[in-house]
UniProtKB/TrEMBL annotation:
EC number: 5.1.1.7
InterPro entries: DAP_epimerase_DapF
Protein name listed in UniProt: Diaminopimelate epimerase
Gene this protein is translated from: dapF
Catalytic activity: (2S,6S)-2,6-diaminopimelate = meso-2,6-diaminopimelate
Pathway: Amino-acid biosynthesis; L-lysine biosynthesis via DAP pathway; DL-2,6-diaminopimelate from LL-2,6-diaminopimelate: step 1/1
Protein family per UniProt: Belongs to the diaminopimelate epimerase family.
Biological processes, Gene Ontology terms: lysine biosynthetic process via diaminopimelate
Length: 274
């Protein structure tokens, strides 16, 4: 059985998108891992499954799976790519995505630029979630990171010089620290000035990616909380740049950046056994 898929990326963070409202394929960890595997499958950082929304205010229900097989509540770049996919299909300028982290309004700026409202950051230790009651602005870990949830858990390390950090070594070690009840995405941030920063993120369940949208949001939120940044920042990642705005009135975090279709195709479901 041949299943259509769409390969997209948001500044290098790449996704395989499957419209399951049409196909209804059965998913399990093994099948997800195989689809995401760059050696044997199509290959991507995250698999995105679209289906009919349960909420009548939403246009589509979106689920994100890391290449490791686990499900994530939020994915910023993935949400922007789904906005690009919807725009391509329906030629509208506004959509609402239903995700496991809530309803996310998206705005089409132009054919390749999408703005997602990622909602309000959560800073209480239980909401991140951490495994115990600690100050989320200064976690009791070496390097003094700050934690926040953008619908998924993030820890942000502020460093003087990003070129001295090995995000693979440190990320691997920290992702599953017992302080993070459900693991965490580990971000490393070098402030350039109050409105720009360089960021690299070791993603939970996916490793070092070229960009992480929710990680960019978390970096700006934590930089503002620490007094390092203004609420409007350019975040420079290995794959490109994002504009992040943390709105003072609504407390929502807005993310704007480019999305691109890489290719579309079909895969034979029989090669992806359950
Ligand atoms: N690439 C993403 C985040 C994907 C999920 C993350 N790895 C997690 O497990 O929370 C983004 O752009 O936000």
């Amino acid at each position: 059985m041949n299943i259509p898929f769409y390969k997209m990326h948001g500044i290098g963070n790449d996704f395989v998108i499957i419209d399951n409202s049409v196909n209804n394929i059965e998913l399990n960890e093994r099948r997800i891992k195989t689809l995401c595997d760059r050696r044997y499958g199509i290959g991507c950082d995250q698999l995105i499954i679209l289906s009919k929304p349960k909420d009548s205010n939403a246009d589509i229900y979106v689920r994100f799976f890391n290449e490791g097989g686990d499900e994530a509540g939020a994915c910023g770049n993935g949400s922007r790519c789904v906005a690009g996919w919807l725009h391509h299909k329906y030629q509208r300028k506004e959509f609402t995505l239903q995700t496991n982290a809530g309803l996310l309004p998206v705005e089409v700026i132009d054919n390749h630029t999408m703005k997602v409202n990622m909602g309000q950051p959560r800073m209480k230790w239980q909401d991140i979630p951490l495994s115990r009651d600690v100050d989320t602005l200064n976690l009791p870990l070496s390097g003094d990171p700050a934690a926040v949830s953008m619908g998924n858990p993030h820890a942000t390390f502020f460093v003087e010089d990003l070129s001295t950090v090995d995000p693979v070594f440190s990320g691997k070690m920290l992702e599953k620290d017992p302080l993070f009840a459900e693991g965490a995405n580990i971000g490393f941030v070098q402030m350039l000035d109050r409105q720009s920063m360089r960021v690299r993120v070791w993603e939970r369940g996916a490793g070092l990616t070229l960009a992480c949208g929710s990680g960019a949001c978390a970096s700006v939120v934590n930089a503002v909380r620490r007094g390092f940044a203004d609420r409007y920042c350019e975040v420079k990642m290995d794959g490109g740049n994002l504009i992040i705005e943390w709105d003072e009135e609504t407390n929502n975090v807005l993310m704007t950046g480019a999305v691109h279709f890489s290719f579309t195709g079909q895969f034979d479901l029989d090669n992806y056994p359950l």
